[in-house]
Structure prediction request, 1029 residues.
Amino acid sequence: MDLFDSNSSERASLPRNMIENSMFEEEPDVVDLAKDSTAFPTFPALDPDEVTYEPRSSRLLVRGLGENDMDDDEEDCESSARLLGMSFMNRSSAHRSNSSPYTRQAPPRSCSRPSSRTIVVCVLFLVIVASVTMVFYFLPGCTFTKAGCRKPNKTNPMEPVYPISTNGDLFPWAQLRLPQSIKPLSYDLTLNPDLDKMTFTGRTVINMSILHSTNRIVFHGANINITKATFKLGDGQASDVTVLEYKPRQQLAVNFSEELKAGQYCVLTMEYSANFSNAYDGFYNSSYIDEDGNKRVLAATQFEPLSARKAFPCFDEPAFKATFLIKISRKKTYMTLSNMPKAKSTNLSNGLVQDEFEKTSINMSTYLVAFIVADFTPNTKNVSETQVSVYSVPEKNGHTEYALTITSKLLEFYNNFFDINYPLKKLDLVAIPDFLAGAMENWGLITFRETTLLVGKKSSLLEKQVVASVIAHELAHQWFGNLVTMRWWNDLWLNEGFATYMEYMSLQEVSPDLETGNLFLSVRFRALDKDALNSSHAVSTDVNTTEQVEEMFDSVSYEKGASILLMLNASFPGDQQFRKGIIEYLKQFSGLNTDTDDLWNSLTQVLSTHHMNVSQMMTSWTSQKGFPLVTVNLMGNQVTLTQEHFLLTSDNTTHTSSLWNIPVTYVNDSCSLAPECRQVFTLKNKSDTFKLSKNVTWLKLNYKNTGFYIVDYGKDGWSVLTQALISNVGVLTHEDRASLIHNIFALSRLGRVPFRQVLNLLKYVSADTETSPVTEALLQLNNIYRQLEKRQESNLASRMKNFIMIKFRNLMANQTWEEEENVSKQELRSALLEMACSLNDENCIQQATSLFKKYMQSNGSLRIPGDLQQTVFTVAGQSDETWDALFNIYAHATYDSEKRKMLKGLASTQNPQRLVQILLSGLSGSLIQTQELPLVISTMCQSFAGCLFAWDFIQENWDRLIEKFPIGSFAIQTIIKSVTFQSSTQVQAFFSGLKERGSQMRSVQEALETIKLNQRWMDRNLPTLRRWL
Ligand SMILES: [Zn+2]
Prediction:
C-alpha cells in the first residue's frame, strides 16, 4: 500500500509459530494477554453474570508486566505501580464496554528519581496487589459466579476463558490470532452487489484441510449477516451448522460435537448479506459526477490490512494463503474487475449479468483480493506475456497514457531485476474517484487515487514523478508482499520497506530524468526525525491488537525500512551483490510467508564475507527502536568513533544501552566526491579506533547519507568542515551538504550542539544552489520560524524571516515563473517560492497574484506550471476575493492533482468562516471529499490561527472522524501529527479522555513528545536567537 503522505510536498516478539500443537491452541499466550487488553474481554472479577472466573489471568497480568517493552533504566517502581493500576483499569473498562477492540495498555512514562515517599507508597501498593492476586489465584474460579462451582475439569485445569458469542453461546476461541488447526485451501466467492440499495449478498465456499484434530473452525467476519451455513466433511453429506460470532475480535466460529481429525478435508458454505461500507475499507461504495453533471455510483474494495472479512467470511491473516474463484453479478451498463482475467459472462434470469473470473493461479493472502463494479474504460498494451491496462472514469481516459508507458517500462525492469516473471496474465491499474490511501497493490488489480495514476499530457515531470513513484512502489509489491508475504503484521516492513526502497531504485534506472534521489534523501531525513523520538518502535515489533496493526503503516515500516536496505546495499561494492541476495530470497520463499529472520538468513548465505555477517549487522537495525549517534574524533591520522542511542526525550532522563552494527562510511579532504573515495569501517562496539593511511584535515562521515545514523564531529570538527564549505561549496557532494545541515539541526535539538554552531554552518549556505541542501535548510529554518510565531515572539519571528530572506534572496530572485523542464530545478523553485510567498515577500506575492489573475481570465486555457501551482493557489487563498474565485474553480475542476493543490490553497486561509466552511464540507463529503480531510487539517495546522480551528474541529468531531478513518490508520496519524501546534496539556487532556476511542495511539505520544521537545528547544535557545538573529 502506498500511504500518500498528503502533508508533504517533499514527500518483537516473533510471531507465533505457524504450526502449533493443539495443546498450545488451548493456552492463551501469556505475553499477549498482558499486552492486549482485548484479551480480557471476559475478565470476570466483578460481574458474576458472566462466564466462570479464571484466576490465572491475574497471574498472567503480573508476569506480563515484567515483559513490557520499557527500557530497563526507566522501569522504576513508580511507573510499574502506575502501569499496574492502569492495566486493571483498562481491563475492567474493556470488560464493561464489552466491545473494545481498540484498547491497548498505555506505554509507561518514565519517572526519574522517585522520592522515598513514592517508593514506600509503591512498595505498599505492590504488596497489596500481590496479596490480592494470591488470594484470587487460590480461590476456586467459580466463587463469584451465581452458578457456583462447576464440576472440575480434571483433564484440563488450564482451560482458557472463552468469551460469549452474539447469540449467548460460549465462543470457542479467546485470542486475536486464529488457531492453526485448519488451513483454508480455496475460496469460491459469489457476490451480488446492488448499487441502488447499497447492499450486497454473497455466497462463500471454503475448502479446508484439517492440520490438527480439533472441535472448531475459527475464522473472520465483520458486519456481515450470515443467513445460512452448511458443513461437509470429506465425502459426507452437507448439513446445517450454526455460525457463532464474537464481534469485538471480528471472529466467527463453528463448533463440532465430534472431533475433526487431522488429515481430513472439509467444506464450509455460507450465504450472507451486508451493507456496503461507508468508510474506505471493505467492499465500499464510491461515486463521482460525470461530464453531464450526473452522479455515477460504483463499488470497490480495500482490504489491507483487516477488511477482507467485511466482504466475505475468511481466514483473514496474511499467512492463510489460498486460491480464489470469484463471480460477481452486475447490471449490463457496468463492468467488473478482479485479480484474474474474466473467464466468462452469463446472463442471469433477473436481467443481470454474472462475470466469472479465472481461478487464481497462485495462493494468495486475503488482503490482496480485490473486485470492482464500475463503468470505467481501459487503455491497454501488451508487455511481455502480460496484458497491462490502465482504467479510469471514461472522461479521464486521456490521462492514462503516462501511467501505461511507465508501468510497461517498470514491469520489464522488475521481471529482469528479480529474475522472476510477473506471474499473472494481466495487470490492471485502476484510478478510483474515492480512495483513501495512495494506492493498493492487490494482485493483478492495483487500485489508486486519481492523483497517483492520472496525469495530463501537459503535466510537468514533477507531477509525473508522483505517479511513477507510486506505480513503482505497487509493482514492486507484486513480488515483495504478493509473491513472498510477511507472516504477520509485525513484519510489515518486509512488504513496505522493500517496496519503498525498490520504488526509488527502479526509477533511477528506468526513468533517471525523474531524479527521485532528492526525494529519497529527504524521506530518509524525516524517517530519522521520527525515529529519534522515544515513542518510536523497532522495525519489527510486537503487534497484538487491531489498532497496532493499523499503526504499523507508518514511517518506520516504510521509510526506515527502505533506509536500512539502502544502507545494506551501499555496504557492498556495486549493486549486483545485493540483487543476487534478494533474488535468492524471493526464489527460496516464492508463494510462502516469511519473517525478518528469514530475510537476513537468506541474505547471509549469499552476501556474508569474513568482514561482515549480514544477519548480525541487520538484526541490530530491525530489532531495536531508534538509531545511533556516531561521534567522531580525529587526531592526526587516528580516528576514534563512539556510538550511542540518538534519543530525543523531553525530560532527558532516558538512556539505553542499545548498540548497532554500523557500516560507517567516510571521505576526507583529499578525496571527497567520487564513489571511489568512500571507505568503510564497521563500528560494532561502543567505541573503536582506527588509523588512516595519512593525516587529513577533515573527515565527512556517512557518505551521501546512505547510512541510517547521525554524526557529531565535535566543536572543532564542525568548524573545520564549515570552513571547508565556506572556501568551496563543491568540496562535498550535495547529498553530503544536505546531510550536514540535517544532522546539525538534529544535534541542536538533542542539546548536543549550541545553536551558534548551527548558524555558523549556515554561513556557507547562501553560496549553495543545489536542491537538497537548500530545501533542507529552508525546512529547518521554517520550522523554527513557525515555532516563534506560535510563541507569539513576533519580533524574533520577523528577524528570523529577514534571516531566511537574506540567506536565500539571490536564489529566490533568480527563479523564473515560466515552465521549467528539470525536476530538480522544479523542486528547488517550488520550495523557494513557497517560502518567499509565505513570508510575504512582495515580489513573490505580486508575481503569484498576477499569474492567478491571468489563469482566471484565460478560463482554464492557461496552465500554471505544475511546480508553481501550490505557491499561486496558496497566495490566492489569502484574499477574500480570490479565495471565492479559487473555490469556484475548485468546485468545477476535474483534474485531481491540481484540485488538491487548490484545496491546500483554500485551507491556508486565515478567515475563520471559510476555515469552518471547508472543515464542514470535508466532513459531509459534499463539495470536498472526506478522503481529503487529513490534507485539509494538516494544511490548516501550518499556521497558528488555522490550527486553533482545526483543533476544535478534531475534538468536536472525533467520533465521526474515526468512523471514516480507523483508529491508528495513517489518515488518523496525519491528523494527530498536525496538532503539535497545540499545548501539550490540551492535547493530553483530550486524548486521554478518549479511552478505547484512540487514547493509546502511538501518534498521540509522538505529538506530545514533539510539542514538549519544541518547547524545550525554544526555552533553551531564545537567548541565542535574540543575540544572533
Ligand atoms: Zn506499499
Residues 1-2, 473, 477, 496, 499 surround zinc ion (CB under 6 Å). The CA atoms of residues 37 and 633 lie 48 Å apart. The chain has 31 helices and 29 strands. Residues 6-114, 135-155 have pLDDT under 50 and may be disordered.
